[in-house]
Design the sequence.
């Protein structure tokens, strides 16, 4: 494009205007993130979705052992499981375990976490002490409880020393106390770790909320449950779901190490029944049928907990 300019002597001169800048090209979004996620997606599909689908497939088979011939059973395994009184004993024990261990653990852990979040003297040391049970291996925890609850263990010895020897019992071998001992182990093993999680979350709540509530006359108890709890309600739901899953699926190792499901079926849980039928009774079809029912129970429990603890605003 040519333009006219005026020179100092008044004459006109032709000049060329600077070229117009090209229109900016449209940027395409980068696709690198999707490529980087492919290995993780493949890993998830192979080692998470694959075993989950295998559970449903094996539940429809008649498979009496790893090296035995396999045949299609259809719904026969479901009928066998539902007609088995051992299964219903395991359902009852698991329901009692969840109904006692999870609420007690969450409530006590929240109160401990609130106390630590107030930064009392020595609160750093308290955090480490609460976290110690989470650092101990499961066999070591079982040995601690076995040493305390065996007929000649610490609990009976303490009862004898204070003149209450009549209350001594074989706690792990008694049908009336075996399941209670396992529930106590679940609570002891998980309450400290959960309290540390709550303390970390409560530490991010602004101090002004608690100070304003106390200026209005609220004590620590009311401040804890009426102010801090609603603020972290969604986080409490997440922690509750984690502890629910751990208690539902992880209790088998405690049962295996301490009671073997006995005496009789007094401490048999659903997760231990899956192990028992698969590796002791060599009935893989029965075992994975219970596994499918356990999976469905866990799914319903998660949805229920999420609905209960969802925020109201």
Sequence:
């Amino acid at each position: 494009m040519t333009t006219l300019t005026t020179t100092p002597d008044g004459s006109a001169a032709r000049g060329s205007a600077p070229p117009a800048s090209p229109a900016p090209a449209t940027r395409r979004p980068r696709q690198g993130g999707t490529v980087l996620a492919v290995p993780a997606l493949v890993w998830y599909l192979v080692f998470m979705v694959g075993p989950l689908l295998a559970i449903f497939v094996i539940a429809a088979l008649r498979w009496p052992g790893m090296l035995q011939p396999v045949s299609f059973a259809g719904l026969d395994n479901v009928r066998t499981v539902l007609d088995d009184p051992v299964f219903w004993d395991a359902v009852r024990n698991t329901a009692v375990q969840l109904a006692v261990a999870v609420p007690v653990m969450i409530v006590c852990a929240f109160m401990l976490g609130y106390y630590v979040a107030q930064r009392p003297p020595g609160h750093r040391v308290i955090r480490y002490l609460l976290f110690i049970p989470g650092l101990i291996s499961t066999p070591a925890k079982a040995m601690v409880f076995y040493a305390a609850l065996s007929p000649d263990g610490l609990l009976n010895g303490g009862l004898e020393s204070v003149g209450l020897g009549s209350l001594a019992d074989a706690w792990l071998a008694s049908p009336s106390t075996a399941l209670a001992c396992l529930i106590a182990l679940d609570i002891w093993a998980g309450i400290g770790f959960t309290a540390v999680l709550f303390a970390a979350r409560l530490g991010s709540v602004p101090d002004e909320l608690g100070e304003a509530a106390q200026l209005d006359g609220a004590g620590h108890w009311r401040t804890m449950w009426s102010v801090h709890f609603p603020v972290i309600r969604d986080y409490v739901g997440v922690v509750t779901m984690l502890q629910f899953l751990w208690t539902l699926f992880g209790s088998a190792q405690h049962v295996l190490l301490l009671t073997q499901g006995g005496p009789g079926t007094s401490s048999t849980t659903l997760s231990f029944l899956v192990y028992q039928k698969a590796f002791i009774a060599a009935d893989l079809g029965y075992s994975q049928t219970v596994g499918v029912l356990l999976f469905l129970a866990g799914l319903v429990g998660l949805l229920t907990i999420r609905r209960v603890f969802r925020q109201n605003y």
